[in-house]
Every structure is written in C-alpha cells, then in structure tokens.
Design brief:
This protein has 15 helices and twelve strands. The chain is α/β, with parallel strands linked by helices. Helix 2 links the parallel strand 2 and strand 3.
C-alpha cells in the first residue's frame, strides 16, 4: 500500500483529505502534527491506515523525517501561524526536501495568487494568499521531468466559513440574519471543505492527467446578495447583505489590538519590516474577494473529476441543514481562542494589580 504524508492533516482542509485517502483503501496516510495528543490528531489517528508523526512544518529535520520513505505528499502550509516570509521559505524548502527524499507525487494546497491576478496592483496584496501563490508558481516552474511529479490544488474561501469565520451572519431580534461586511458585488468561489478530499484523491489516482495541473476548485460562485437570497429560499428566514465600510468591519473583527497577520501565532509573534498587521492583511482580502477579481473555475471539469460533489450553495445549505448559526469548523478559530487567552494571561502577569 502506497503511503502519503499529509502536512496540515489536522486542519479544516486537511481533515477531509486524510479521510478520503484513508477510505480509498489503497493509500496509507502519515500525518505530520505538532501535537500527537491533540483532539484533532487523535481523531485522525482512529482512521484506518493512518499514523501520526510528531513535528512542525517549519523545521527542516522534521520535514526530512516526514517525507522519508513515502510515495506521495499533500502539503498545506499554515500562513496564519508561519507568516508570509516563513510560508514562502518553508513552502519552497518542503518541495526541495521532498525531492531529495524521493517522493514521487507532490500535491501542494494553494490559494489564488491575488497580487498576480490583480496585475501586480499592491492594493490587492496580502500575505497568506500571495505567499502560497508564489510557492505554487515555484513548484510548477520546476516542470515534470525527473522522478517527482507535482500538482497544485487551489481553493478559495471555504463555504464552511458561513458556519465559523468571517462569513457567519448575525441573527437579529426579529429572527432574520444579516451579513454585514465590506464585500461588493464580486462572486466568491466558495468551496465545500468536504469535497477537498475527493479532489485530492483524484489528483493522486490520476497522475498522467494531474501532473503539472493547477486544479482550481469551487462549489459555487456567489455574491453575498446570492448568499442572503439562497438562505431565505432554503430556510424561510429573512436574510440580507449589508455593506459596511472596511474600517467598521476591521474594528469589530480584529482578534486583539495590533494583531499580526499570522495572528494564531499569538501576540508575541516575530515582526519586522515585511510583516503585515491583521488589518493590513484583511483589507485587501475583502477588496479582492468582494470585487470578484479572482479567476473563474471550470465547473465542467470539476463535475467530471468529482461527479457527486455538492453542486451549488443551495444544495450545500440543504445538505448541512444550514441555519445561520455557528458550528466549530475552522482550526484557526480554535487556535485564535488560545492566542487570545495567552494575550490576556500575559497582560495580567505584567499588570497584576
């Protein structure tokens, strides 16, 4: 049985990948995790043919151990922990180390390269997308000659962020729901997280077609007006999108004062001239997605690759019994809560009175 190492396997995107590879019954899975005793790590360890290896994605010795002896790799670096510069460095180094260790098929989980899509307009530059975009371009630029083939899996915002994250609406006293944010009329390529698993499995199962491919996935392309209208259609409850200035949204959503872009690393994360604040990161994030600057997805191709995928937002809301209320989905949110607690503990210790 061929073994695939998954880096980021306990995250929101990596979990369905591990599940799909495990369920295929022809791949074993090795999951690199910094804490083998965490609840998410123990969850994946219970799956058939899954083993855990302790280490971090920003340690080169750990990466050598993770890639050694495996057939394939699925790699999703965590920009909200690493920061833009480290994600660029370790994203490239992971690929190089995988080639050294003899990996035969390397799949890198990327996202839309916003700055490039916007014709290098700096108003659309933010760290956690552009770092991944640069790494993806670097990987594909190496070509498919030699022993290791490579593929890119590009995802946009998660449809599941309607449950947990920036797309969660606010319930009003009258029972209606409001999506108050800075998005304009752009269509967002939302992806159902559960379908990331089958897409990733297809890449590994179809090397002759997937080598050199940048598979850009989405479930549906929708505006926030579409989201509100679909919500009303499915639930019978009132839904409306309310445009608010970016500063209003930032003031309400900032994790903690002067938070860095890699906010889950905590308030003491290293900063230098190249570092972006959380506000600097999410201002262009909303501008890019809210204006629909990103590349369109090929839904005919996606239907061929994954015929049983969730086809649109309405089907997703029905399948997951969406009611506009929060459910825990995103690992980053869990880490954010830890970072916030750390910040408060540090503040108390420095000012005991």
């Amino acid at each position: 049985m061929k073994e695939i190492v998954v880096i980021g396997g306990t995250g929101a995107q990596g979990l369905p990948v591990v599940k799909s590879l495990s369920a295929s019954k022809h791949f074993a899975v090795r999951v690199l995790t910094r804490d083998v005793n965490s609840a998410r790590a123990q969850q994946v360890a219970k799956l058939p043919n899954v083993t855990l290896i302790q280490g971090t994605q920003d340690n080169q010795k750990d990466l050598h151990r993770a890639f050694h002896g495996v057939y394939g790799a699925w790699v999703n670096t965590d920009g909200f922990t690493l920061g833009e510069k480290n994600e660029l460095f370790y994203g490239c180094r992971a690929y190089e180390i995988a080639r050294h260790e003899g990996v035969q098929h390397y799949v890198y989980a990327s996202t839309d390269y916003a700055l490039k899509d916007a014709n290098w307009n700096e108003l659309y530059h933010w760290g956690h997308n552009d770092a991944k975009g640069r790494v993806a371009d670097f990987i594909l630029a190496q070509g498919q000659k030699g022993a290791m083939k490579s593929s890119i899996l590009t995802t946009g915002p998660y449809m599941d962020m309607l449950l947990d994250g920036h797309f969660l609406p606010q319930e009003q006293p009258d029972g209606s729901f409001v999506w108050a944010n800075p998005a304009k009329s752009g269509k967002l390529p939302l992806i159902n997280l559960e379908d990331v698993g089958p897409y990733s499995l297809w890449l590994f199962d179809n090397l002759s077609e997937s080598a050199g491919m940048d598979l850009m996935v989405a479930t549906d392309e929708v505006t926030f007006e579409d989201i509100a209208a679909t919500f009303t259609k499915v639930t019978g409850k009132g839904g409306v999108h309310q445009y608010i200035p970016i500063e209003d949204w930032l003031n309400a959503a900032e994790p903690y004062p002067n938070a860095p872009a890699n906010f889950v690393a905590g308030p003491q994360a290293h900063r230098d001239e190249a570092s972006m604040t959380w506000r600097e990161n999410f201002t262009p994030w909303w501008k890019y997605w809210g204006e629909g600057v990103c590349q369109k997805r090929d839904f005919k191709l996606l239907d061929r690759i994954h015929p049983t995928r969730v086809k649109n937002l309405e089907d997703w809301m029905i399948k997951y019994k969406y009611e506009g209320r929060q459910r825990n989905v995103l690992k980053g949110v869990e880490d954010l809560k830890k970072a916030a607690r750390l910040m408060m503990d540090q503040a108390k210790s420095s000012n005991p009175n």
